[in-house]
Amino acid sequence: MDGLSIGEVAARSGMAPSALRYYEAQGLVTATRTAGGARRFPRSVLRRLAFVRAAQNVGLSLPEIRAALDTLPEGRAPSARDWARLSRGWRDRLDEQIAALEQLRDGLSSCIGCGCLSLKTCALSNPGDVAAGQGAGARWLSPLLRRVPPGSNAG
Description:
Elements: H1 6-13, H2 17-25, E1 32-33, E2 39-40, H3 45-57, H4 62-69, H5 80-88, H6 91-107, H7 122-125, H8 143-146
Domain HTH merR-type: 3-71
Protein name: Redox-sensitive transcriptional activator SoxR
InterPro entries: DNA-bd_dom_put_sf (IPR009061), MerR-type_HTH_dom (IPR000551), MerR_fam (IPR047057), Redox-sen_tscrpt-act_SoxR (IPR010211), Tscrpt_reg_MerR_DNA-bd (IPR015358)
């Protein structure tokens, strides 16, 4: 049977076999089974896994990644054109993420807008702790940077 074993994919992708099984369960990758039940992945899975890792590294959630991967063709390895189309759809999202991170970087030395009143400048930025009336968490921080990571116990 053709295809890469889970060990081969793990070695080539740098991901643990448990992560590969999880990604399969989440619908991010697919594998066929041998007569003995061993997984066999198409070689094109390596590109998908590289995409998953890059997307996670820029803060995209697994549901966002799955939705993007679902736009790729079935039954054949995605072409360069397919990947370009997929990435165009994320350009605005990534630009928003970059702007939010720049805002965070530029504000770290003064205040991140959390309403904590722990810094002297908060009395100027948040008199009377008005941010507390807007709810829990860092209310003035970009919503992209306030997202609770999937699998986190926070929430």
